Amino acid sequence: MPIAIFFVALAGALIVAVADRQLRPVAILFAIVMSALLAYVVWDQWLRGGRLPPRMTLEQLQLDDLQVASDARFVRVSGRAANTSERFRLREFRMRTTVHDCPDADSALPDCVVIAQDDGIARVDVPPGQARHFEAVFSFRNMPETTGVTVWDHQILEVRAIDETARTPVLR
Q1: pTM score > 0.85 for this model?
Q2: Which pLDDT score, from 0 to 100, does residue 15 have?
């Protein structure tokens, strides 16, 4: 969002520079300052290269006791989210839920047909080393009836956390 505001301000300065002769010097000066600021931010990011701060990994979030409940429109997946990190406070995570139609209960997932898949966000505040209840909502439109056994598969795609020592948001 801040980058969008930056470009709107820069575009506004350029429009003023073209439209109003009296404000042209001020608008040009503003555009130069904003461009220099952008150059500094890009340069700073380039200098740091791969030296990003440590982040909470996907493996540090463990989901247990998963339950699936469905109604006419949505499917709710709930359970227990355990944050095994010693440093990061979990704020939310994004997960993908896939519904498979398998020939029998012992079938491997590659032998099954995917009949529905959706991504959902679970907003849950979990301090380091603790666990909390979570719930995520999914919408499976046009999901066909299963001909065999329904198998649910859940995958964590992304975690958002705050570094408890620095209080800076991190994304993984």
Answers
A1: no
A2: 79
